[in-house]
Amino acid sequence: MSDRAIRNLEHLRRSASTARVLNLLKVSDDHGHTDEWSEKPMFQTPSLNTSLIIKHRLRRNETDSFPGRRQVATKLVLPIDTADLKTGGRFVFVNQIGFERVMLEAFGLPAEHHDIRTLRLMDQLPSLDPFLLREQLRRGGVDAAPCYFAISEADLAKMSAFVEREIEPLVTLSIGKGVDATQSSARMASKILSNTPGDRLEALRMTLRLEPEQYQEGVFCWKGFLYYKWSLNSMMQDIVKVADEVASVSPWGPVDASSREYIKRGRGVLRSNIMQTCEKVSQTLKYYDQAYAGLTQRGDPLAFRDFLLEAPTLFTRLGDQLGAIQHIVSFWRFRFNANSPPVQVDELIDIFMDFETGLMGRNFDDLAAEFPV
């Protein structure tokens, strides 16, 4: 492991979980003494419960490690010494070729083990955003303690209120105009957010003529769209602020000519890429808005049916884009707050390279042609 990789690992230890990184080592440091951490662990294997799990954009020499074509993988990093990350770490990609053999040889875990299933549930998500990660694990029967998910009660309340407002037109369509839909919207929002079945949700499935599995997967991704829409709205001021700070940040200490040129170029490119990615997220969300308006305003359920069928693919696209933005904002807050030490040139270059890699456009040409937004 290179010096720069070691420095990155040390930063990950100190920083909280983000949409790209699940820092179980920090969760263990902060909550390992509590009953909830020990009684409801995310993983049953102790070493996995102090690991770092990263949504990693694959390099060209890594793509052959997988049986199919993919750009982002779930990377499981196990520090050699959790007290001293300078010793580096071992890693494996979830679902890489030979993954089951590696997990059996390294941890004695058979393919059907709870922890293998948990890792595969994580691998199905486009990002490790705590809200969606919690919902995905619950959907898969994994009931991990709240300390593993950095979600405040205030944010949960705001998210619930946002979902209620979003689905009120659908509830009004169901119960008729002129009737107060507030309580009905709250109940339906609760069912959507908790994956709880209900008569009104079943009626919607029948209206859309979807099979139960298609509908369940579509509704989960619909919930993801609602969450991402709320996230983008609530983060927009911070995104613009971070983008402006990126454009003006300078390293501390001496800077050679080549580093100065890279940072000068990187400021402008990175800021532009951040804002362009936000625009792509907005365009993907507009596709959902149009389909939902067709159902609730024009009485045309076919567009929303098509959206639910396409939602898993679009959800991956959206999560990849917004996850990269969320990671940048979260890490920037951590590294460039008032109490942080000055950033030196090598570290700033590392940060720029990491951010640029995360924002690197996936090839969505085929998707754009099939699902115009």
How would you portray this structure in words?
With 373 residues, the protein is mainly alpha-helical. The protein folds into two domains: 3-151, no CATH class; 197-370. The chain is 62% helix and 6% strand. The chain has helices spanning 3-14, 24-31, 35-39, 99-107, 114-123, 130-139, 153-175, 182-194, 199-208, 212-246, 257-296, 301-335, 345-359, 365-370; strands at residues 21-23, 52-57, 72-79, 89-93. The chain has a four-stranded antiparallel beta sheet with strand order 1-2-3-4. Helix 11 (257-296) packs antiparallel against helix 12 (301-335). The chain is globular and about 65 Å long. The chain starts with a helix and ends with a helix. Residues 1-7 and 362-373 have low confidence and may be disordered.
